[in-house]
User: Fold these one by one.
Assistant:
Number 1:
Amino acid sequence: MPRGDFTDIYDPGVEMPSLREKLTREAIILREPGSGFLYSNVGYHLLELLIEEVSGQSYAEYIRSEVLLPLGMNSAVYAPESGMDQYPPTGYNLAGEPVPVYVYPEKASGGLFATAGDIARFVVAGMTDNMVLNPKYVELMHTPESREIGIYSLVFDAYGLGCYLETLPNGLRSVSHGGQGKGIMTHYQSIPDTGSAIVVLTNSQRSWPFIASLLSDWARWQSIPSVGMGRIIWGQYGLSAVIGMLISASVLIVIRLVLNVKKVRQTGHTWLKAGIAVILLGTVIWCKSQSYLMISSVFPLLSQWLGGATVVLSAALLLSVLLPVLTGKGDRFL
């Protein structure tokens, strides 16, 4: 099943498509079931429909009565009301623009409104005996279903039934999952064998580097050298280095052109440079046209710098191609 469109949002109380209508458009088999891993919200929306058909209740009613209230998650709801004691805050998207509170037609993949304390109660329930979550099924959730998880393998080792898994440097197993919507970013991470966990909820879509820093500090507090999400910090260093190299290359090209403006000639590399510039510009334009890119989500500010540095390098390359023509030293190639 595909990821699903998490940007399809609605104001609370307005008319919106039904769950069936959304699934009719989005529930498309992309690969043979069982043939590989693909992160999918749509799969959970199908489970949502199944729960509603079997229970005869709405998903929100069923989960609240069977899971949320028994776990003590008393303020967790699927439909925010203006009179709530803790009404959800305004979120901020990748561009830093405000995103007022919204709802989805589907509830199972991202429709829950809950406090950090509520989510902490759920995480604790996954590490202790309780009357709600059967330990046998919790263990299944925490058992790897797939170790080939694509780009997520950069920070995690495997995916269980609904959560990411990793073996920490001290040999202990860690369970985690994050959430991302328009204007929000969340994450929890637990170590079942020690009973330690952390929950982070933010109202900004730029929060992954911040969350990674918090998790790294938490790991050190737990006497753990690092957690997988901490690699985002190293990714920031690497991306910063790439941006620095692109800008440096651009500056060197321009300086060379200025110092040798009278000697500039078109060479056999002219069309190669022009081709590279066009490809780079085309890549930037394509990226800007996408509604969602993983690199923009993980590195929201640095990705903008990367795009700008790429455009600058493209301009420098095109200038080095056009200058011989403008100075009249490229006629023999035209």
Note: The chain has a mean pLDDT of 87.
Number 2:
Amino acid sequence: MTPVAGVDMSHRGGRPGFVRRRRGDSLVFPDFAGNRHYNTLGNLLLNPQLALLFIDFESGHLLEIQGRAALQHDPGACGGYPGAERFVAVEVERRAVIGRLPWRWSLLDLSPTLPAGGTWGDEG
């Protein structure tokens, strides 16, 4: 099958620190049961290039990270994420602060689905 060019944008979120630095320029983040359509994961299997956008809600700064993704289906491969079914490992190729939004946000309340994911420790 020949991959088709295009863009898939999907929101990911979790407790503070849900994206972790592993070794060197490598990141990992969990994937949970809420992604039952597997759209993003299937697209990453066809084309592992990805970009991540991180927003600092207090300052408005935007950090973009580009790299290549690999799916890890062994939940034991990276501990500390109760409820995770798989992980996305990212080899970072480029990163840049790309701007600043004029808006600021403040936390009103955590998502009611977060407690189902347990308390994420510093292990992993």
Note: The CA atoms of residues 37 and 43 lie 11 Å apart.
Number 3:
Amino acid sequence: MEYRSIYNGTLRVKDVGKHVKVVGWVSKKRNLGSLVFIDLRDKTGIIQVIIASEEIEVPDIRNEYVIQVEGVVTKKDVANPLLATGEVEIKGEKVVVLSRAKTPPLIIAETTDALEEVRLKYRYLDLRRPNMQKHMRTRAAITKATREYLDNLDFLEIETPILTKSTPGGARDFL
């Protein structure tokens, strides 16, 4: 069984007419009665899914549920210039809920109004935000390039333990 056929953020006009299977977190859901719009987010970006609820059964879906959608890529009548995938959408033919989620304590979007304390407590959720993922990818690319460069010069990477004294506030524990 194929889990996904393409990543959400890679869909473009050249993909119109293709039957695809995508997976991701529900970023936003809008129910307009006979039509349900879902913004589906994965590590590459967001794609809009449109489902005609009179044609297929739409399961109960909320933000941060992980779902799998099968459907056909179609060209939007009005493009969204704010999204890389803004010219296309998926006309959903089948929706499967892979994982349910409680309402998150912070908004998982480019910007959030959550306090730093909440963001640190729920770091695993904060790291889903697009700008945080961009920072992680940049750091990983820099680290990889540095290691490859030094490896080509026959350097040997050795890890040494870092000894620190724990403090009552726990600040050093994050080092």
Note: The chain has a mean pLDDT of 89.
